[in-house]
Each structure stands twice: as structure tokens, then as C-alpha cells.
């Protein structure tokens, strides 16, 4: 998760168990469990993935409760972790991309995430097959007409507060709100209903990189058991739901999922990042001696929106009959 996100959250004394030691299954046992999981996935008719902060740590985003997690270090009075990336610079992990391939192969039916880093959407999971229980730091929502706006920059607020932008629908124009929950906020009904529906239908819920401590989200995977479904947990620390699981794997999520994909003969696609910007070019003659050209680069989300992915612009022009003067403007 983003350090900025952690700082924006309201203070809460009880954040659950933090700082537990990590457990690593011995290599032979780990391989045996990976093959067992692969067979379970192969036989599954309705696979659901339930993801937590642990799938994004290899993307450079620290978790909450690990040995170097944000809350673990804060409780020890050590401040925030040093090695981290803001959300907009993070790229989907191997696990994120493996889930994309499983979805494309029609094996994975739905993803439920507690993360707000937008890496599932960025990786290519379709929005209609994703429930983001705690929101998305890059998503704004119009409270009047319900339109969602996915940004390429991190929205400045959390707690479903009004932002500085308005709905672009000419018939609406209402002030937008962020979609990220604070501690006291209830889970969004739309996301929760979809998540519950798929957990009840699932014959296998794969819990990846989550401590399964935050309620009510942590109880969702259990709903598959009532209809004969199974739960598999892949996490480096024990969870309160381990006894309910058919299989518990203690290993790095990326390593486990890479092994599963290899066993299933499925290739993990590379992540290719695509960013968009709006360019406008204008010119004005100056007393027939030279032409002044102005190139403006702005966000597709509006002239005042940040261009988080762009640092600088370089350019040159060839001399013509008239002297050219080129100005580059990065807004």
C-alpha cells in the first residue's frame, strides 16, 4: 500500500495482529502444495481470487502487518518504511499478471481485492469482474449519476470526500468523490454484493497475500464452504481462517503462482504500460521575422490534472524560411 494512503487514514489504535514471523514451507513440501493447488484450479468450475496487500509487495508497495509493514513499524515507534513506491509508479506483479491470464483462459471468474492500489485494473482485469472492497485510489465517482472515472494519478482524498473535479456529463456536473474507505466507512454495497454472490457460487476461493483480519471482508471466502466450496490460503503468516482452509501454503505468492502457472502450462503475460496525454500545437507570426510555436502537454483528465507519469519534455525544430521559436509547455 502507499505511504500516502497510510498517512491519510484516520488514527486507529486496534489494527489487529501485526509483526508476526514469516513462515516458509520447506522446498519439497512447497512444490507438493503448488502441484496440489494447480490440480484444484484445473478442476475448478468457478474460481474466485481474494487478494490482499501481500500480492503488491513485489511491486514495491509495503504491506500493513508484515515484519516491515507500515503498522508493524509504526507500533514499534519506527515510523514509515523507507523502501516504497507511490502507487502511480508501481507496476503489476507477476501474480497480478498471472490472474489476468487465468481470467483470459476463462478459469478465473472473479477477483475480490482489499487493495486500493489499482494494480488489478492496470494489469487488465475487467472492471465487471473485479470488486474493490476498500475502494481505489485512482477512481473518482459521481454521487449523482454514478459515473466512474479512472485516473492516471492518485486522487488527493480518502473517506469518500469531495474532490476538486466535477462530473464531465453535461447533464450532471456534480462534484466528484473519491472511492477509498476510511476506517469508519461501510463497504460499498455494489462491490460487496458482487463479492458475496461470487463467493457463494465459487467451488474454490484462492486467498493470496492477505492476513484475513479485516472484517467483514475477511469472512467472504467462508461463504463458499456452505455450498461445498474450498478455500486455499497463500500467505507468509498464519491467518485466523487457516483451520477453515483445505490447503494453506506458506511461501512467496509470486513463487507459488509461477509454479502453478507452469504446472498448468499457462504463460504469464508481460505488463505493458500505456499512458495517455493530450497535445495541442499552436503558432503565431511575429512581424514576419519568425513564427512562435507553442506545444502544450496536458492530462486527458483536464488541464489542471497532474501528469504524474511525465517528468520532462525535449524537442527540436528544423530551420525553415522563417526563423522558428518553439516553446514547450508541460502542464
From TrEMBL:
Keyword Metal-binding: yes
Pfam families, sorted: SIR2
UniProt: Zn(2+) binding residues: 142, 145, 167, 172
Co-factor(s): Zn(2+)
Catalytic activity: N(6)-acetyl-L-lysyl-[protein] + NAD(+) + H2O = 2''-O-acetyl-ADP-D-ribose + nicotinamide + L-lysyl-[protein]
GO MF terms, alphabetically ordered: metal ion binding; NAD+ binding; NAD-dependent protein lysine deacetylase activity
Main subcellular location: nucleus
Keyword terms, alphabetized: Metal-binding, NAD, Nucleus, Transferase, Zinc
Record domain Deacetylase sirtuin-type: where: 27-267
An example Gene Ontology CC term for this record: nucleus
List of catalytic residues: 134
Membership in a protein family: Belongs to the sirtuin family. Class IV subfamily.
Name listed for the protein in its UniProt record: NAD-dependent protein deacetylase SRT1
Amino acid at each position: 500500500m502507499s505511504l500516502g494512503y497510510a498517512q491519510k487514514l484516520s488514527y486507529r489504535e486496534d489494527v489487529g495482529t501485526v509483526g508476526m514471523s514469516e513462515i516458509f514451507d520447506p522446498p519439497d513440501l512447497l512444490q507438493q502444495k503448488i502441484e496440489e493447488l494447480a490440480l484444484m484450479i484445473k478442476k475448478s468450475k468457478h474460481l474466485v481470487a481474494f487478494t490482499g496487500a501481500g500480492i503488491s509487495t513485489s511491486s514495491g508497495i509495503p504491506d500493513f502487518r508484515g515484519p516491515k509493514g507500515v503498522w508493524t513499524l509504526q507500533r514499534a515507534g519506527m515510523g514509515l518504511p523507507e523502501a516504497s513506491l507511490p502507487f502511480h509508479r508501481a507496476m503489476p506483479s507477476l501474480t497480478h499478471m498471472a490472474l489476468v491470464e487465468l481470467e483470459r483462459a476463462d478459469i478465473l471468474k472473479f477477483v475480490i481485492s482489499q487493495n486500493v492500489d489499482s494494480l488489478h485494473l492496470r494489469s487488465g482485469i475487467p472492471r465487471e469482474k473485479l470488486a474493490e472492497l476498500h475502494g481505489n485510489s485512482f477512481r473518482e465517482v459521481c454521487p449523482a449519476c454514478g459515473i466512474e472515472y479512472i485516473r492516471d494519478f492518485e486522487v488527493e482524498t480518502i473517506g469518500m470526500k469531495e474532490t476538486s473535479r466535477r462530473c464531465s456529463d453535461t447533464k450532471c456536473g456534480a462534484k466528484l468523490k473519491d472511492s477509498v474507505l476510511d476506517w469508519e466507512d461501510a463497504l460499498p454495497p455494489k462491490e460487496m454484493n458482487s463479492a458475496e454472490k461470487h463467493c457463494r457460487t465459487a467451488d474454490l476461493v484462492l486467498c493470496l497475500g492477505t492476513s484475513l483480519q479485516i472484517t467483514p471482508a475477511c469472512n467472504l471466502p467462508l461463504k463458499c464452504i456452505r455450498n461445498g466450496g474450498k478455500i486455499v490460503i497463500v500467505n507468509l503468516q498464519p491467518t485466523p481462517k487457516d483451520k477453515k482452509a483445505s490447503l494453506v501454503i506458506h511461501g512467496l505468492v509470486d513463487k507459488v503462482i509461477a509454479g502453478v502457472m507452469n504446472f498448468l502450462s499457462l504463460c504469464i503475460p508481460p505488463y505493458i504500460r500505456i499512458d495517455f496525454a493530450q497535445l495541442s500545437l499552436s503558432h503565431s507570426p511575429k512581424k514576419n521575422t519568425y513564427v512562435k510555436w507553442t506545444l502544450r502537454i496536458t492530462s486527458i483528465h483536464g488541464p489542471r490534472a497532474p501528469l504524474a507519469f511525465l517528468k520532462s519534455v525535449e524537442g527540436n525544430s528544423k530551420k525553415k524560411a522563417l526563423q522558428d521559436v518553439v516553446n514547450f509547455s508541460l502542464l
